[in-house]
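Purpose: get a first structural picture of the assembly so the mutagenesis plan has something to point at.
Setup: two entries, given in the order below. No constraints added.
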Amino acid sequence: VKAVIITIGDEILIGQTVDTNAAWIGEQLNRIGVQVEKNISIRDAHDAIHTAIDEAWEQAPLVIMTGGLGPTGDDITKQSLADYFNTALVFSEKVHQRVQAFLTKRGYSMNSNNKDQAMVPEACTVIDNPLGTAPVMKFEQNGRWLFSLPGVPFEMKEIMHKEILPRVKADFQLQPVKHKTIMTYGMPEAFLAEKLEKWEAGLPAQVSLAYLPSPKGIKIRLSVYENASEFDDKLKQAVSELKAIIPGNVFSDSETELERVLLENLKKYGLRLATAESCTGGRIASVLTSVPGSSDVFNGSIVAYQNAVKSKLLNVPEAVIAEYGAVSEPVVKYMAEGVMKQLNADAAIAVSGIAGPGGGSPDKPVGTTWIAIALKNKVEAQRFRFGSTRDVNILRAAYSGMFLLNSVVRETYEQ
Amino acid sequence: VKAVIITIGDEILIGQTVDTNAAWIGEQLNRIGVQVEKNISIRDAHDAIHTAIDEAWEQAPLVIMTGGLGPTGDDITKQSLADYFNTALVFSEKVHQRVQAFLTKRGYSMNSNNKDQAMVPEACTVIDNPLGTAPVMKFEQNGRWLFSLPGVPFEMKEIMHKEILPRVKADFQLQPVKHKTIMTYGMPEAFLAEKLEKWEAGLPAQVSLAYLPSPKGIKIRLSVYENASEFDDKLKQAVSELKAIIPGNVFSDSETELERVLLENLKKYGLRLATAESCTGGRIASVLTSVPGSSDVFNGSIVAYQNAVKSKLLNVPEAVIAEYGAVSEPVVKYMAEGVMKQLNADAAIAVSGIAGPGGGSPDKPVGTTWIAIALKNKVEAQRFRFGSTRDVNILRAAYSGMFLLNSVVRETYEQ
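Result (structure tokens, whole complex):
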């Protein structure tokens, strides 16, 4: 089955918004075995929408469309779809009640713009939108489908997971697809590829391989698109061979993110965590607490952006900061021990670095970062040299810290 | 003048890469007065490339294409363009010498893949690529133009600036364009639209309006695409009228993000900031420290995920937590005062809430969040009711906290 993704919004075409919806939807469709032929981004304009649908359906029977469903005047997708399908907008009691309930729960009352949201094209099937007031619509014509979803990413994702993907899986006859994703950290792509060259050459021809690099690590994905069920054993074998080649770098073979793996391991061994963050500025704490249930393990963090805070709250001696500088091995070790004591934890991650763009020196250029790991009465530290981009440096420091602690916990307890 | 952007690459369609090239090119074209009609992303396949060019030229005389020009086997754009324009690939001595000079300078010698890069379609004009070995091509047909550029972002950007944009400006007769973006927070889209209905009706017909909502606030964008220079005064007037209608909700009329506006205001009035975060888990600290130079203003944060940390480090009396619960007005007020004192700051944001999915009760359902703002010797708190999605609740709590503090600072100092 082939699909085309259409994203609607002037803001995409003038470059004010980067279209992340198309990439996300493409990945989801690919996972269930739907091949995306094309992404089209267009303006909020009737002729553009109509032309895009024509072009899309010429190439694929499944069209996923996002955007232009808000309650304001510049959002015209609903009317445009009604025109395209020669149908009238009619009042839907069901949608009206849903919008009303949605607003009441949040303490708002309905206004005329919200009332308009209960008008939907007669020819469509309305699908539930659990997180917003915009209607989700499904149109069918000659065995071809078109779904129209709101463009707000978190609403769109929830609707895709709960409503769209299950329908597509059930109603198109999709060939089962198998993916196996192994999560690695700490080895750059070129080195990884070199190290895995032989292993790669030994994979069956039907198994395709992709490296998906990001500052959060490199995912190695094995995919089988045809007769997938016959490859279960081969995939399992490939994964265990891979883990034997780079045991220290694989942190998950079930596509679980590093922050979740770390929290699970800490919970398993009854360890409570605290972080002391300088250049990461709370990013580690923020990533960890984005995981539901993190409070089972995470006590909190001291974000010591100022040196005075490092001394006062983390007990880093001022003389040590003066002698070695805030970005140094002794300082991060003191930070890790200090936060573990202050927050009554069993394990700690401490980070101090120069994220940039300012603050670098010939001795400690931008990207220089020290990370310390404390576990019970053990403390160790490591220096990293990241790049020149502030955001990426912060992210790399945060994930390197979590990876290091996860490795130390495994070394200590997994014997 | 209208344009279509075509980006080529399998990795875009399976969601492995987010297409940032199209957004960047769109912004650049829009700035010089070219209206982008459509972005198309397609696979590395001849039929897909040919169909995309047909569709693009049907709607616009200018096509900018990126991707598929690398030296490896999956890059087929050059051959595909030669086929489309019924022309042969011929050896270009000029390109050969440029590639050779490029490689020599970097200490490499030419291999057969590089030699192939000197083969270019006879019908095209070759344009200089100062940063790479891939040829940049320009095709002309019946007054329509097609540029083919490499997809590597930094190469593409350099070529656009140095070669493509100057040619487009010189050879098409371009009209200047004007945009004005106003940033708002704290009012949902439907209510904003209702409040601005009259104002909107009073805008000149040539001024188009768009609402761009996100958990970080709603941007209101005014655009003029024709005779833009005549609308300077009208746009200025529209912006000041808008600010008069919702003075408390507009935090920027220069498209600056809330975190930057807050840091600028704090700096302007000589105030240093600290945050005490429970449900936001360090997100506010993380967002603020992602801004370069935030250390001028930001002292740090205490992420008190555990109640014990709230008592020990933020001096929230245990009896108050026991009586009112951790998510309550007195607790966030104590947190704000406590962190301000501990981190020696002049202003503080404190947040405690139930981000979900667990932890809710009939009395305090998921989404219930208390935020306190402390400024010098003043403390105030406000209750919010966000939704049911953890990530969005955290983001909304973080931005609501920053918005509240920014409002209090403005009220206090902007008289």
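The longest strand of chain A covers residues 35-42.
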